[in-house]
Structure formats: structure tokens, C-alpha cells
Design goal:
alpha/beta, Rossmann fold, 7-stranded mixed beta sheet, 27% helix, globular, binds S-adenosyl-L-homocysteine
């Protein structure tokens, strides 16, 4: 894989910086998240033919009917994950896809665990993690409806594909005080929710309407 990590023209630092400005205008205010997104070269997470569009604030196809999430959504979900005094130390992501969101999280958390059900996507994402020397990301080919029980509990879990109902297994893998950020609902009518474990029980917040690919079952090799 020959990759221009630095980027030129439409993939340059200047273009990336413009995206960060745009995210600020759209209400992203956590400087830790904005810094993390400034660090990660989004253009290496899409096909070369699409690299010139990597810093547009839009979702892009990554093959296998999947998409790399829109930068605004990556920023928003990361912000929700990092709310509060402390950054989460151990994070689980369900839906590795291109690996972009995991790479942003790897700048914020101590360890990132990410699971994907489509093997070729996971292989490509793993190559990108190597290239970026993101040594704090662990990957697994599996159905993320079941989380990653051997590595749990997690301070935060982020799901980047939408189930119709929240997979209960994920709640059991949260640490006390932990937080689940997840899009829920059927195609076209999903909402982003934050579920937190408090002393009084589960607290659920609805953040905004979103559009994600569906959370599916099983593994594709
Ligand atoms: N976070 C990704 C977004 C990818 S789109 C990125 O930054 O690029 C959502 C991903 O979730 C797809 O790759 C899809 O294959 C995966 N997915 C869907 N259902 C899943 C499941 N049950 N377990 C693991 N991954 C799943």
C-alpha cells in the first residue's frame, strides 16, 4: 500500500483545517476532539479515487454497501463519549468500517477495542492502523451485537451502525458510570442516544436525528 500520509491539494493539512473550522461552526466545541480530528488523515480511509473528497463534511462509500461516517457525526459521537471530567480509558467501538472513527478515538482513549463483521473491511482498517502506528487499537472479526466480553468492561461503548433495539449485552459490558453512544431505529427514522449507568439506574438521552447503516448479525468472510 503506497499512501501519501501528508497529503497535497485537496488532501493537505490546509484542507483538513478547513474541515475543522466547519465542524466548529456546526457546534463541535470540545478541543480534544477537534485536535484528534486534526491529527488523523481522513484521506487514507477512503479509496484513492475518493481521496479528494475526504475532507468534505459528508459520508462516503467504502465498499460492501458500507460508508465512512460523516465527519460531523464522528465529531459529535466522540464529543458525547468524552463528556465530563475524565476521558474514557477503555473504549469499545462496534462497526470498524474504514477504521477512521477508531483512529480518532485512539487519540482520545488509552485503549480502543473495535469489532467489525465484514472481514475484508477489517483487514483494510488494520493495515491503516499499522501505517499510522496506532498501537493502542485492538481489532476483532465478530458480530458486535455481543460486544467483546473477554475485554470488557469498558468506560464507553460507541456503536456506528443502527440496531432497531439496543443490544442488551452491550449494557452488561459497561463499567459503573460508563456510557453507551448508539443510533437506534429503523432506516430513515433513527435517533442518536446516550445511555448512562448512574446510581439511580439507566439514564437515557436522545441527542439528534441521524442516518446510519443498519447493525446486522453474523460475520462475512
Ligand atoms: N466507524 C466506521 C463506520 C462504518 S459504517 C468508520 O469510521 O468508517 C458501520 C460499520 O458497521 C460497517 O462496516 C458494518 O459492516 C459494521 N457492522 C454492522 N453490523 C455490525 C455488527 N453486528 N457487528 C460489527 N460490525 C457491524
Amino acid at each position: 500500500m503506497t499512501v501519501d500520509l501528508q497529503g497535497i491539494g485537496m488532501t493537505s493539512m490546509r484542507t483538513r483545517k478547513r474541515l475543522i473550522e466547519r465542524l466548529k461552526e456546526e457546534g463541535i466545541s470540545d478541543s480534544r476532539v477537534l485536535d484528534a480530528m486534526m491529527q488523523v488523515p481522513r484521506h487514507i480511509f477512503v479509496d484513492e479515487a475518493l481521496a479528494h473528497r475526504a475532507y468534505e463534511n459528508t459520508a462516503l462509500p467504502i465498499g460492501y454497501s458500507q460508508t465512512i461516517s460523516q465527519p460531523y457525526i464522528v465529531a459529535r459521537m466522540s464529543e458525547l463519549l468524552c463528556e465530563g471530567e475524565h476521558l474514557p480509558r477503555r473504549v469499545l467501538e462496534v462497526g470498524t468500517g474504514s477504521g477512521y472513527q477508531s483512529s480518532v478515538l485512539s487519540q482520545l482513549a488509552d485503549s480502543v477495542y473495535t469489532v467489525e463483521r465484514i472481514e475484508p473491511l477489517l483487514k483494510r482498517a488494520s493495515q491503516r492502523f499499522k501505517l499510522l502506528k496506532a498501537n493502542n487499537i485492538r481489532t476483532r472479526l465478530s458480530d458486535g451485537n455481543w460486544g467483546w466480553p473477554e475485554e470488557g468492561p469498558f468506560d464507553a461503548i460507541l456503536v456506528t451502525a443502527a440496531p432497531e433495539q439496543i443490544p442488551q449485552e452491550l449494557l452488561t459490558q459497561l463499567s459503573p458510570g460508563g456510557r453507551l453512544v448508539i443510533p437506534v431505529g429503523v432506516d430513515g427514522a433513527q435517533e442518536l442516544r446516550v445511555i448512562e449507568q448512574t446510581a439511580e439506574g439507566w439514564e437515557v438521552r436522545t441527542v439528534e436525528a441521524v442516518r446510519f447503516v443498519p447493525l446486522l448479525s453474523g460475520v462475512v468472510r
